[in-house]
Write a structure and sequence with these properties.
The complex is a heterodimer of chains A (206) and B (489). With 206 residues, chain A is α/β, with parallel strands linked by helices. In chain A, 39% of the residues lie in helices and 20% in strands. Chain A has a single domain, classed as 3-Layer(aba) Sandwich (Rossmann fold), CATH 3.40.50. In chain A, α2 crosses α3. Helices cover 60% and strands 18% of the residues of chain B. In chain B, the strands form 3 sheets. Chain B has a 5-stranded mixed β-sheet with strand order 6-8-9-11-10. A 4-stranded antiparallel β-sheet of chain B has the order 2-1-4-3.
């Protein structure tokens, strides 16, 4: 019976779910919660004294969301540095301004990205995206494993008054401009080092 | 080293050289030390700055476990030629270490700095960052600075050399003035140049020229005054000499008067004997009983006394005549002559004279002048004895002996001594305690002059207590000391 169920889920996933890179998922699950603590205004984002890490997913990706939750709990054991945390799994259709979140992690979605990003930006919620292409749609962070692990940050999010990351984080990330960048650009940028990337973005669009 | 620097300019230059060199060395050392420290601090600060710049980045990467990113950062870091190595430690475990190519060559004298790595947005220490920073820049700075200082020192040396030459040139007129003044005497007029210079040397030249003029004027006046003074002194000396000679003559005449009295007294008895002898022979002849023996005996007696009288005349004549040049004489004979001359006085005043004479003392000198001294000393003692002592207690002792290569002649009386307040003045001219009719105050002064100046001896008088005939007396003791050279014993 179990084998049948596993086979069913696997087939279902193959048939309807997105094909996630497990390595990227794990890297993101390891790093994104830590990035929350690099926000100098983390205290403002606590809900009942806890960090609420909300994973937003498509219905088909539920088991991925669960596995991410498990992975995070296994890694951090309910504690992010001195703060307790809680992971909420929310289907994107249920995500609204009422949803409690210190940070959100958006798995692959075809729709509603702009809406989710809008809510997050408005509420000062740190947003992470599995897919780097979602940055041009308003989400804040993504992570790609290239030659090395690279963090991307959508530039416009820096202007939010509710979020203030430590300078060192800003030194190490690569910036993406949603107004200009497209996937090809990003792929191109990825071949450059961070300095040239930043320089090329501005030079090309002056 | 012992050769002292005499030139003023050399001294100035030497002192300035010492001060300048000391100052430069002090400043050099001080600046070198300060700047070395400063350069060291700068380089250390640079290293610290590098560390403090990359520490947050490394911290974030450690925090996010992005070790490959740390490696990228350290790799990029060691491309800087000044960074020799970088080591990242997490919980005392090296998680990343990179060394540049130059690391092995420069490790010995490079800067090693470290800083703790803090978790971003937290004070939690999560690791340590150790940086080895090249000291190439530091060495370059030190080398440049040392070169600069040496150049400055060299320039200072050149300046100092020029300054020394300038000082020497400035002070050369002083040396020339000194050379000119070496041959200066009030008789010569040295023309000192540089008096037209409007500086200290000009002032000195002017002052020296004026001074020469003044000195010459004073010298002329002084010469004139000296000439006049010399003439006056000669005149006064001559006058004084004449006066003294006159006084000496007076004193001698006074002595002569006394001597004549003595001689007259001495002559009385021989003359009486001669007269009696001649009268006796005449009476014996008239009565016809003058035997040949009596005649011969009486004639011999008369002749003896006439000879005695003749000798007395000789003594007196010698005394009056004085000595023109030193002669060899026997001290005892001279003393005998003195006694003969004063014998009448001795007898008259009942003075007992005690002798202790060495008969063999012979000396070269002025016997009559010494005789005159004996008489003067004797007369003073006699006057004091007559005034102070009863007739039966008037003693004068005279001793003559050789002691310590000198002839010592001592006169000692028992007249009570000379008062202490005047004893130091008795040889001064015109000093006397006697009535004007009795003394001139020149007797002892003349004796002093004769002994000290003519006979190169000494004369001193002091009071002395002594025993005689089991009785204690006080009296004046006068000691004549004569040098024994040219003596014959």
């Amino acid at each position: 019976m179990k084998k049948i169920l596993f086979l069913y889920l696997t087939l279902l996933n193959i048939a309807f779910g997105y094909n996630y890179d497990d390595l990227v998922l794990k890297a993101q699950a390891s790093i994104f919660p830590k990035i929350i603590l690099l926000d100098k205004k983390i205290e403002d984002k606590l809900i009942d004294g806890k960090i609420i890490y909300t994973i937003i997913y498509d219905k088909a990706d539920h088991h991925t969301a669960v596995s991410i939750e498990e992975f995070i709990n296994k890694n951090f054991k309910g504690q992010l540095d001195k703060y307790d945390y809680k992971i909420n799994l929310v289907e994107f259709t249920n995500f609204s301004t009422q949803t409690e979140a210190s940070a959100i992690y958006v798995l692959n979605l075809e729709e509603h990205i702009e809406q989710i990003a809008g809510i997050a930006n408005a509420k000062g919620i740190i947003s992470f995206s599995y897919d780097i292409n979602n940055l041009k749609r308003g989400l804040m962070f993504s992570l790609v494993i290239e030659k090395s692990t690279v963090l991307y940050l959508e530039k416009e999010n820096l202007y939010s008054e509710k979020i203030d990351f430590v300078d060192a984080l800003l030194q190490m990330v690569r910036f993406v401009d949603k107004d200009y960048a497209n996937q090809e650009d990003i792929l191109y940028y990825n071949t450059l080092d961070s300095k040239n990337l930043y320089a090329s973005i501005f030079d090309e669009h002056k | 080293m012992n050769k002292k620097i005499k030139s003023l300019s050399s001294k100035i230059v030497f002192l300035i050289a010492v001060v300048t060199l000391s100052s430069i060395l002090l400043i050099f050392n001080l600046f070198e030390k300060i700047n070395k420290e400063a350069f060291y601090t700068i380089e250390m600060e640079k290293a610290q700055l590098v560390l403090s710049t990359i520490e947050p980045l490394i911290a974030v990467n450690i925090y996010l476990n992005l070790n490959d990113r740390i490696d990228q950062v350290t790799k990029q870091l060691v491309t800087n030629p000044n960074i020799l190595s970088i080591k990242v430690l997490q919980s005392n475990q090296v998680i990343n270490e990179r060394k540049s190519k130059e690391f092995e060559d420069n490790i010995d004298d490079s800067f090693v700095v470290s800083t703790p790595i803090f978790q971003p947005n937290s004070k939690k220490e999560i690791g340590t960052l150790i940086l080895t920073y090249s000291n190439k820049n530091y060495k370059k700075l030190i080398d440049r600075y040392t070169t600069l200082l040496i150049k400055v020192l060299f320039v200072f040396g050149i300046f100092f050399l020029l300054f020394s030459l300038y000082v020497k040139r400035l002070l050369s007129p002083l040396r020339r003035i000194a050379r000119l003044l070496k041959g200066y005497s009030p008789d010569t007029n040295i023309n000192i140049p540089f008096d037209n210079q409007n500086n200290e040397i000009g002032f000195i030249s002017n002052a020296l020229n004026n001074m020469q003029h003044s000195i010459m004027q004073y010298s002329n006046e002084l010469q004139k005054v000296n000439s006049e003074l010399e003439v006056k002194i000669k005149q006064e000396v001559e006058k004084n000499k004449q006066a003294q000679e006159q006084v000496f003559k007076s004193e001698k005449l006074a002595s002569m008067g006394e001597m004549i009295g003595n001689i007259a007294h001495q002559w009385r008895q021989p003359l009486s004997v001669i007269s009696s002898g001649a009268t006796g022979m005449l009476v014996q002849k008239q009565f016809g009983n003058l035997s040949d023996e009596n005649f011969e005996e009486t004639c011999n007696l008369i002749n003896d006394h006439a000879q005695y009288l003749s000798q007395t005349i000789n003594d007196f004549r010698n005394f009056i005549k004085g000595d023109s040049k030193p002669v060899l004489f026997n001290l005892k004979s001279d003393t005998d002559s003195f006694i003969k001359l004063v014998a009448a006085t001795i007898k008259k005043h009942n003075i007992q004279v005690v002798f202790d004479l060495d008969e063999n003392i012979e000396l070269e000198g002025f016997p009559n002048e010494l005789l005159q001294c004996f008489i003067n000393i004797f007369n003073n003692s006699k006057d004091a004895l007559v005034e102070n002592n009863p007739e039966n207690e008037r003693y004068i002792s005279i001793s003559e002996k050789i002691e310590n290569n000198s002839i010592i002649i001592t006169f000692q009386d028992n007249a009570g001594g000379i008062p202490e307040d005047i004893i130091g003045k008795i040889f001064e001219p015109y000093f006397t305690t006697k009535h004007q009719s009795q003394g001139t105050g020149l007797g002892l002064h003349m004796s002093y002059s004769l002994i000290v100046s003519h006979m190169k001896g000494s004369l001193e008088t002091f009071n002395k207590t002594f025993m005689f005939n089991n009785k204690t007396y006080i009296g004046a003791q006068t000691i004549i000391t004569l040098p024994l050279e040219n003596k014959h014993t």
